[in-house]
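for the writeup, i need someone to sanity check this before i put it in the appendix. the sequnce is what the collaborator sent (i think, or maybe the updated version? ugh). structure was predicted straight from it, no edits. if anything looks off just tell me and ill rerun, i have time this weekend
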Amino acid sequence: MFRRERSIPFQGSAAALCNNLSVLQLPARNLTLFGVVHGPSAEVLSAAPDGVPLAKRQLHVKEGAGVSPPLITQVHWCVLPFRVLLVLTSHRGIQMYESDGSIMVYWHALDSGDASSVQAVFARGIAASGHFICVGTWSGRVLVFDIPAKGPNILLSEELGGHQTPVTDIATEPTQGQDGVADMVTADDSGSLCVWRSGPEFTLLTHIPGFGVPCSSVQLWQGIVAAGYGNGQVRLYEATTGTLNIQINAHARAICALDLAPELLSAAEDTFVHIWKLSRSSESGCIEVEHCHGECVSDIQVCGARFCDPSGSSFAVTGYDLTEILRFGSV
């Protein structure tokens, strides 16, 4: 069971974007960092365990030509083996910062050369895999950046093709050095999923076709792809084969966020956040799902939700036009 805890106020309000919340726990400093997008700016704030806000910082898109400032699409912390970077994507490009947002270490401008005059250009979908950071784009390509242990010498090492529509989300899973294992999944606006093996060169292992509904959020759990869709369904696929294992009619409206730690969290525009226990049967090896908790965040259009710690003992929720981050802790 979970109960509502002290909310964390912030300066702006959350934009109506899927996956509009990122969380980074800093156990050594007894702090948790939260990142939320609000139109042309993103707010990064730190809070103590009891929810008291300690510091705030606003990030904006790198200056450029144009009458109005470009909109930010996502903010996300990428935990790499030797450092943590905060990545911000927008309609103009990709910005990478030191983890507290104090110093921008890299800027990548999006090339709109192959976009039509009516097509929006943007980056969206961010994840770390080993010493790489992968970022999705409006064209369906995924940009792979090679990140050094320190310093700003970040290189665009590869562009992955596999999607025909804009990328919506990317998820990765550590493989503990196992070769040939699927460790990254990308999703797009058509509901298609691509499963990859990372490395010096990324390899496409499986393509899971869509069914006419956007896939807004994905996660990877022990070789299983968890995908949340615009019709409220959560589907669990075998990553290596693309076989559909389980289909859950989890929500009445579009799913806007999934997270893992170690249970699966799903949040949707129906104002509900659900927590599911995933397991494998010791006898058959089949995936089993158990509903653990449902939380109604009434009168709020949920747009982001994340666990706040690796054990999954607390989670946070953002809502469209809401000027605070809602927190829930286990009892």
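The longest strand covers residues 287-296. The mean pLDDT is 93.
thx in advance!!
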